[in-house]
Amino acid sequence: MAKAMKPGSNTGKSGGIFQQVSPAGNPLPKYAAVPDNRPLPPTAAPGGKWMPLKITPSNKRP
Asked: How far apart (Å, rounded) are the C-alpha atoms in residues 7 and 40?
């Protein structure tokens, strides 16, 4: 299982689709699509985090 990330932290090369989780770690029905090297958006409740669901592939061409 992937590690939850705090709001405002940079995605680095791991951009993709993120699901919001509560402070207790329960998944919430809120999603965000965040590109590579961008900050994660704020959560609806204090203490919430973002869990990566689907990481986008690299944009390098062969």
From this structure: 5
Distances (CA, A) of 60 to 10, 12, 40, 41: 20, 15, 23, 26
Q: How many helices (H) and strands (E) does the chain have?
A: 0, 3
Task: Enter the pTM of the model.
Answer: 0.87
Query: Cα(14)–Cα(3) distance, rounded to whole angstroms?
Result: 12
pLDDT tens-digit readout, 41-62:
999 999 999 999 999 887 676 6
